[in-house]
Design brief:
By secondary structure, this protein is an all-alpha fold. It has helices at residues 11-39, 50-91, 97-102, 106-109, 112-123, 128-137, 150-173, 179-186, 191-219, 223-228, 236-246, 250-276, 297-325, 344-351, 355-385, 394-398, 408-418, 424-448, 452-461, 465-493, 497-502, 510-519, 523-545, and strands at residues 92-93, 292-293, 327-329, 339-341.
Length: 551
């Protein structure tokens, strides 16, 4: 085997053996140090009055209640949409299947900032949907006014995150053995009972695992709530940002950070417990079950109704972004008034002095963050896979989950206390400390697909752990490393939270430019910027997803 040929390791290999551990140390220190400072920030503050303390706890309780409620109901909505979508993707063959499966890219390649803007343009009082309903039924007032409320936050989160449920459940559902279901049907059980007693228990773990992830995403919601602004409550993330940046209440911000972390750790522990048995009894090499065509009037009607709802309520808001980028207010106002179509917004954004610096900042930060994340993930792969028991132990399972317990706002708050003036490298290290687990999952997936006999041969024929890693594990995980780099790049490109919280002097990426344009009601230009940002982030995501996409 060429993988095991003898010879000295190249100088690049030895350089990598230094860069990898340094990168892993950098992302670990860049995570642990600001988190520790954020959690213990209250130690350096003075005493306060009872009135101030009571006001703080009242605000905190209100934010905590709102956060749990919106995360819970958002997760329920994501499951209500994602579970039927998983059924159609895994068990039925129909013309829109590939398109529905492609929607799983949205939570990763479309930043929350763009989703929030899309919902404002589509569901807002002066949005496309209200305009269409008023024109169709002759209404004088917009019939939909739910956006700036908890209902609006829940709908935005549920629609944004349902592809996570769809992808997580469908990957298991399409590989479920058919023998138990067929045996139950032969014994006289009705399809509903077979689903309730056989199929649903087999899907419980992936369903709960995906729900835990969605709950965490909604629990740490920041940009969507911040951009909506007028909702009937605020999340812990927004309250943390306001306490640290606006009110300079470091004691209150530290308390919020502690509560967030404790709650997130509980959810992550639940998720880790589920992950251990997620694929139990289902091999990754199992063949996919044959999909059946949509059949029967009832099933076709349900499929048409479901897919129509996806088009109207999910694809519609996304389509409003490029459409609004071509809209020009006939009255000359930035907001409201009748609209005509033209290229004024594109001319303004492309001819402005902010686009190229923002694009360069986005690409440069994304490349640096991706490189640091992949180097750290490869070093972690060496620690967990180059030994005698590759990929085993609590370290490989739990360490990558730890960053999920900390929000970008909390990490940025800690970095602000450590380095008030901030630096571009601070942003790179902060982003990498939260996103290196995504690179690790890609590398781990590539290594887990390696046949066991190759791993056994590498242990026998390699002179040591370093030799085994560079001659066997690294070449076999190279595609996963490239996929992880592209995924981290996409995440970094769409990140507006950390740059906003860190407030780096003179720094503005595309996400911050979009936030500023939307905040000043320059929606057409904001949408043009959103299209550019989606292309930058989406291209990287589709590169990494190309070898795993359904063939």
């Amino acid at each position: 085997m060429s993988l095991f040929r003898k010879g000295p390791i190249s100088s690049a290999g030895y350089a990598g053996s230094v860069i990898g551990p340094v990168s892993l140390f950098a992302v670990s220190a860049g995570f642990l140090a600001p988190v520790a400072v954020a959690l213990f920030a209250a130690a350096g503050t003075g005493a306060e009055g009872a009135g101030a303390s009571a006001l703080r706890f009242a605000r905190l309780f209100s934010a905590l209640r709102f956060t749990f409620l919106e995360a819970f109901f958002s997760t329920l909505l994501a499951v209500a949409i994602g579970f039927p979508a998983a059924f159609f993707v895994a068990r039925r063959d129909f013309p829109g299947r590939r398109f529905l499966l492609a929607l799983s890219a949205v939570p990763l390649c479309v930043p929350p900032m763009i989703i929030a803007l899309a919902f404002v343009l589509y569901f807002g009082r002066q949005g496309w949907l209200n305009y269409g309903l008023m024109s169709a039924f002759g209404l004088k007032e917009p019939p939909l006014s739910f956006l700036y409320s908890m209902t609006g936050v829940v709908i935005a989160h549920g629609l944004y995150d349902f592809p996570v449920i769809m992808r997580t459940v469908s990957r298991v559902w399409e590989r479920l053995p058919a023998d138990q279901e067929e045996a139950a049907l032969l014994l006289g059980a009705k399809p509903v009972r077979v689903f309730r007693t056989v199929t649903l228990p087999a899907l419980a773990r992936p369903l709960l695992s995906g729900s835990a992830l969605v709950f965490l995403y909604c629990f740490f919601s920041f940009v969507i709530v911040l951009l909506f602004g007028g909702v009937g409550g605020t999340t812990l993330e927004v309250e943390l940002y306001q306490a640290a940046r606006s009110r300079l209440d470091f004691r209150g911000a530290s308390l919020i950070a502690l509560i967030e972390t404790v709650a997130a750790v509980a959810v992550i522990a639940f998720h880790a417990r589920l992950q251990r048995g997620l694929g139990r009894g289902i091999s990754s090499r199992d063949t996919l079950r044959a999909r059946k065509p949509v059949r029967g009037l009832r099933e076709r009607g349900a499929a048409a109704l479901f897919l129509g709802g996806i088009l109207v309520f999910f694809v519609g808001p996304l389509a409003s972004i490029p459409l609004r980028s071509l809209a020009v207010s006939a009255s000359g106002a930035r907001y409201g008034g009748s609209l005509t179509f033209g290229l004024a917004a594109w001319k303004s954004i492309l001819g402005g002095s902010n686009l190229l610096p923002a694009l360069a900042a986005t690409v440069g930060t994304g490349i640096a963050t991706a490189a640091l994340s992949v180097a750290a993930a490869l070093s972690f792969a060496f620690i967990t896979y180059a030994g005698r028991s590759p990929g085993s132990g609590a370290l490989s399972r739990l360490a990558p989950l730890v960053p999920l317990a900390v929000s970008p706002v909390m990490l940025g708050f800690g970095w602000n206390l450590l380095s008030p003036r901030g630096h571009w490298l601070t942003l790179v290290v902060a982003q990498a400390s939260l996103s290196w687990p995504f690179a690790w999952t890609q590398i781990q997936g590539a290594l887990e697909r390696v046949p066991p006999d190759i791993l056994d041969a590498s242990r026998l024929l390699s002179s040591g752990r370093l030799d085994r890693f560079y001659r066997t594990l690294l070449p076999l995980s190279l595609r996963g490393a490239l996929s992880g780099a592209a995924l981290v790049f996409a995440i970094s490109a769409g990140d507006a939270t950390l740059p906003l919280v860190l407030s780096l002097p003179g720094y503005e990426n595309l996400a911050l430019l979009l936030f500023r344009l939307a905040g000043s009601y320059r929606f057409s230009e904001a949408c043009a910027c959103a299209v550019i940002l989606s292309l930058v982030a989406g291209i990287a995501f589709f590169i990494q997803d190309g070898d795993t996409r359904e063939r």
